[in-house]
């Protein structure tokens, strides 16, 4: 096709019949170029409709992604600030928890040892009766009837 256009340009000084054939060649070349352009255009436009719609929405999706990323970054920054504020408290709790666990274990060991002593259950009932009677109201008629 390019060769035909070059031949046509070089034949300017030719006879009228040659000019007609070169004009026809130029028309043929132009038609061929149009066909090639249409083939290329139709080949590149063979995209499914859903893909074309997604491609059209891509700029909005990227903008939404940028906004969401910015919000996520600010949330992460806020969480890091909160963690920095709570860090001393967490370190203090880490130091206290082993001591509290040891204290609870000692209390459990003491309870087990005392529960094996004879008569301790009676002592427990006496203490629980005294503690419940201190909490009662002396004006309560039921309490006066018992006493």
| Helix share bin | over 70%
Q: Measure the end-to-end span.
A: 125 Å
What is the overall pLDDT average?
78
- What is the H/E order? HHHHH
Q: What class would the helix/strand composition place it in?
A: mainly alpha
Low-confidence stretches: 1-11
Quaternary structure state of the chains depicted: single chain
- Round the Cα radius of gyration to an integer and report it: 49 Å
% residues in beta strands: under 5%
Q: Give the overall form.
A: rod-shaped
Q: How many strands, what sense, and barrel or not for the largest sheet?
A: none
Number of strands: 0
Number of helices: 5
Which structural traits does this protein have?
mainly alpha; 5 helices; 147 residues
Describe this structure in words.
The chain has 147 residues and is mainly alpha-helical. The chain has helices at residues 2-10, 16-44, 49-115, 120-135, 141-146. Helix 1 packs antiparallel against helix 2 (16-44). The protein is rod-shaped and about 130 Å long. The N and C termini lie far apart (125 Å).
